[in-house]
């Protein structure tokens, strides 16, 4: 497999799961992380760039925060695309960051993926997505196709698509986008380091081709961090970190949804959003739970949560008290350990904890939440709602 994933992970075919990323050797959580750069930040830019030589994308607006020092060394230039979204202050924290393409801010050559980097464009086309040809995708593609035909001048003869993108190509690109785009979320705010506040909006979307090979598991062994509100170059990069060590040959998975969704939601959402039914070990166990047990809300209460994978929004979480109950009923809930160890205990957060990157080569025993940023030591006793964390 090409790129930065190659030394750490192998691409393999998995029964019923298509391509997947697998660890060739033992994967030590405290040392392993992957930095992934976006191939494109906005599908519309690809479409427009194909027929409008000077088209651009207005960068999403983000709040000015500084990237924590420990991550700065990871930052480098992305693949032919803006390495950062501009750190302009948002007039309102609720304002959506994703804007329609517009003239004037980012040079065309960085956006016209098909022309600038045919191999990256082919990589984009190789991503999964054909299966997502739902009626609404086709309807959206028809609309875009006629819009492009009416607003864009004919592409230059040297363009790889001198006729412009066909309807079929637009359908395919929209489908890739649907199955593979990651949402970069605004940071959470919290009340006095406790309960996490309100909804988070999406700052930007990006497709990270190598991250697109991570399959979903409801008990993931890796999770995704991003720092989109930092002022640094590369603030659209994502970092995938291991949650815990895994043995050789084990598949490395993200959760496409907050890990605290209940069984019913975890069955519904992958089908609705990605076209598959999850049959992971956790789902197999919970499939045998009684309706009563499965009718609980989702862990973490009225959480709006965070998906580590492709998606960014969530609802209905299991109730926090279930974690305590689960400890007592280990046979019925063998994954209780995961929630106690690796789910953020801050109310309404729903994030997943992974060890901080090593500093000076030494592995860290401090875990960081990928949603609220809470830090806690791996061996700390965990109480509900943010007690015993290192912020307090
Ligand atoms: C972002 S892609 C992941 C890589 C994909 N397996 C491939 O071959 O390119 C998402 C797609 O992978 C498949 N997938 C991911 N997790 C899965 C799982 N737990 N079980 C079955 N299929 C899964 C689904 O087809 C889903 O739409």
Relevant terms:
three-stranded antiparallel beta sheet; disordered C terminus; 392 residues; alpha+beta; single chain; binds S-adenosylmethionine; globular
Fold and architecture overview:
The chain is 24% helix and 14% strand. It has helices at 43-51, 69-72, 113-116, 118-126, 135-151, 167-180, 263-274, 281-287, 291-294, 321-328, 336-342; strands at 10-14, 18-22, 33-36, 181-185, 189-190, 196-197, 202-207, 215-216, 222-226, 238-242, 253-254, 353-355, 366-369, 375-377. The longest helix is centred in the middle third of the chain and has 17 residues, at 135-151. The chain is globular. Mean pLDDT is 69; it is low at 1-6, 44-111, 301-306, 311-316 and 386-392. S-adenosylmethionine is lined by residues 16-20, 128, 179-180, 212-213, 215-217, 274-276, 278, 280, 310.
The total strand number stands at: 14
Q: Which strand order does the major sheet show?
A: 3-10-9
> In terms of structural class, how would the helical and strand content be classed?
alpha+beta
Bound molecules: S-adenosylmethionine
Main pleated-sheet profile = 3 strands, antiparallel
Radius of gyration: 21 Å
**Helix and strand succession?**
EEEHHHHHHEEEEEEEEHHHHHEEE
- N- to C-terminal separation? 43 Å
Question: Poorly predicted ranges (pLDDT <50, ≥5 residues)?
Answer: 1-6, 44-111, 301-306, 311-316, 386-392
Mean pLDDT: 69
- In terms of quaternary structure, the protein is single chain
**Overall form:** globular
Domain SET: 163-257
Region (Disordered): 291-329
Protein name: SET domain-containing protein
Biased composition (Acidic residues): 291-316
């Amino acid at each position: 497999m090409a790129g930065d994933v190659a030394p750490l992970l192998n691409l393999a075919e998995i029964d019923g799961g298509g391509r997947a990323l697998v660890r060739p050797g033992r994967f030590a959580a405290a040392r392993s992380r992957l930095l992934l750069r976006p191939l494109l930040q906005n599908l519309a830019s690809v479409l427009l760039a194909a027929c409008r030589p000077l088209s651009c994308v207005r960068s999403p607006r983000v709040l000015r925060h500084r990237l924590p020092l420990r991550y700065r060394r990871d930052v480098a230039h992305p693949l032919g695309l803006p390495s950062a979204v501009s750190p302009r202050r948002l007039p309102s924290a609720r304002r959506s960051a994703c804007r329609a393409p517009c003239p004037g801010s980012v040079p065309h050559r960085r956006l016209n993926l098909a022309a600038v980097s045919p191999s990256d464009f082919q990589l984009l086309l190789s991503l999964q997505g054909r299966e997502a040809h739902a009626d609404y995708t086709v309807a959206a593609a028809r609309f875009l196709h006629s819009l492009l035909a009416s607003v864009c001048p004919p592409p230059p003869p040297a363009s790889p698509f001198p006729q412009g993108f066909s309807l079929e190509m637009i359908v395919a690109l929209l489908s890739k986008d649907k199955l593979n785009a990651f949402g970069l979320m605004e940071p959470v705010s919290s009340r006095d380091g406790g309960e996490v506040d309100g909804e988070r909006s999406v700052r930007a979307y990006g497709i990270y081709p190598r991250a697109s090979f991570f399959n979903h598991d409801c008990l993931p062994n890796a999770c995704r961090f991003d720092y989109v509100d930092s002022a640094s170059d590369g603030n659209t990069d994502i970092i995938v970190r291991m949650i815990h060590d895994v043995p050789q040959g084990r598949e490395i998975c993200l959760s496409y949804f907050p890990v605290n969704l209940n069984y019913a939601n975890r069955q519904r959402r992958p089908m609705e959003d990605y076209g598959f039914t999850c049959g992971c070990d956790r789902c197999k166990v919970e499939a045998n739970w009684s309706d009563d047990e499965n009718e609980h809300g989702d862990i973490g209460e009225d959480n709006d949560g965070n998906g580590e994978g492709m998606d960014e929004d969530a609802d209905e979480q299991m109730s926090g008290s279930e974690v305590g109950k689960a400890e007592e009923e280990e046979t019925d809930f063998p994954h209780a350990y995961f929630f106690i160890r690796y789910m953020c205990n801050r109310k309404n957060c729903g994030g997943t904890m992974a060890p901080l990157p090593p500093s000076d080569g030494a592995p860290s025993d401090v875990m960081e939440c990928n949603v609220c940023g809470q830090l806690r030591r791996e061996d700390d006793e965990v109480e509900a709602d943010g007690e015993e964390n290192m912020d307090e």
